Amino acid sequence: MTISFKGVHFPKDVILHAVFFYLRYGVSYRGLEDIMAERGVDLDHATLNRWVGKYAEMVAEAARYRKRAADRSWRMDETYVKVKSEWVYLYRAIDKFGKTLDFMLSKRRSKAAATKIFARALEVNGMLKGFGCPILIEILRRKYLNTIIEQDHRFIKRRIRPMLGFKSFASAASALAGIELVNMIRKGQFTLGLSPFQQFAQQAG
Hints:
It is built from seven helices and three strands; from the N terminus they run αααβββαααα. It is of the alpha+beta class.
C-alpha cells in the first residue's frame, strides 16, 4: 500500500517527520509548531493536527501486515482512554515476548469488540485464512499472564499524557494507531538497520 501525498503543499518528508515526531515524543501541536519553526518549516498547529489525523492511521494500517512474525502465545487486554469527557477502550494484543500483534479503539467494552480484535489479530498475523483457522487455539484466563501487557500499556499512556486530550473518537483512533506503530518500531518489529524515522517512512511507501 502506497499512501498518496498528491495535492499537499509541503514535501512528503516534512509531513512524515512532523507526524513521526508528534507520535514518538508526545509533544503538543503548539510545541511541535515551535520545533518545526526552529527547523525552518513555517506551519500552524491546525495543519499539524490535520496531518496526524489523516496520515498516522494510514501509515499504521499499511504497516499491519508488514511486521515481523510473532510468537503464538498471546496476551490480550484493554485499557482506558479519555475522548472529550468520556472513556473509551483501547483493545491490545501482544505476544509473550512483548511484540505487538494488533490494537483497536472501541467506544464500548463488549463481547463483540473483544471478538473483533481477536479475529483481526488472527488475520493480520497470518493465522486466519478464508473462513477458518488452521491451528488449535486454547484460551486461558489467568491474571498473572497479563502482567506483561499491563506494563506495555504504560508506553502508550506516557505518549498520550502530554497530548492534552482527544477532541473526537476519529482523531483518537488515528493518533493511537500511529503511537502503536512507533511503539512497534521501538520493539524492532520492522526493518532492522534503519533509523526509527526511516522505518516509519518506509511504511508510507
